[in-house]
């Protein structure tokens, strides 16, 4: 394995972490949006606030990590993506900013109407952000980002594979959030809410599976290089994702919520890993390989060292933070909310 491959692997770790943790965070907006009126949806919205409140900013650490690694290690590819996909990237950024602001403002609203307004903005922006981030991934995977940058500002992402990727990013985020929230509600002892969330997570999971199957044909004709990799060397990861996805649904049916959450995480992580393996050695599919896009060897070595130090310094506090929110003591706070 070459040095550029190692750095690309470290970059992929950040992408997977953001998709899992940030995705579950974003997906909670769907359940906030469909929670119901002020009275009926109060308990679910309280659960969402307690579940994502301590970690929602921490999740964006991974986005910063991905951006810094990308522009430092692969400046040519980073420039091409930023100049070609500036529209969906700006829309995703707008969603992230609006989501953060509305999440905070809702808690300090002076009136019920203000709280509803900020709640609606929070829910809508929670879906906007993953959709446009998904279109960026789809544009890259389908070879629509030229190596020299400055590709078509609209056609580069308004196309079958990018749009399908955007929809799948939203649906998988909602499914992750559903499995996480169901487990949190069960741990807090909120049986009625647990059943309500379980049913919704099952429906979302079934819809996501149907979307994946329905997307196979348009992607095969729109992104042949990616498709060849998916049915070839990435095949085992695709199979793992399918097995884990069906396993998560089965575990939800059996009310084994903690294990279902693990299966859902494995399913999404396997999808992302399969995407990376399928398009390797391309960084920009059909345009620029990992080796061609890599920066100076000294820079890459420094980044490997920084990534290792970050794993030692940043990872333990993040793990502790996430574990803390899964304790009985934290659930007790929800019981008294």
Automatic annotation (TrEMBL):
GO biological process: aerobic electron transport chain
Record keywords, A-Z: Cell membrane, Membrane, Transmembrane, Transmembrane helix
Classification via InterPro entries: Cyt-d_oxidase_su2
GTP-binding recorded as keyword: no
GO cellular component, one term: plasma membrane
A GO MF label: electron transfer activity
Subcellular location: Cell membrane
Bilayer-crossing regions: 6-31, 52-74, 80-105, 117-141, 161-181, 201-219, 231-253, 260-282, 302-322
Mode of membrane association: Multi-pass membrane protein
Superkingdom in the source lineage: Bacteria
Keyword Cell membrane: yes
Pfam families for this protein: Cyt_bd_oxida_II
Family note: Belongs to the cytochrome ubiquinol oxidase subunit 2 family.
Protein name: Cytochrome d ubiquinol oxidase subunit II
Organism ancestry: Bacteria, Bacillati, Actinomycetota, Actinomycetes, Micrococcales
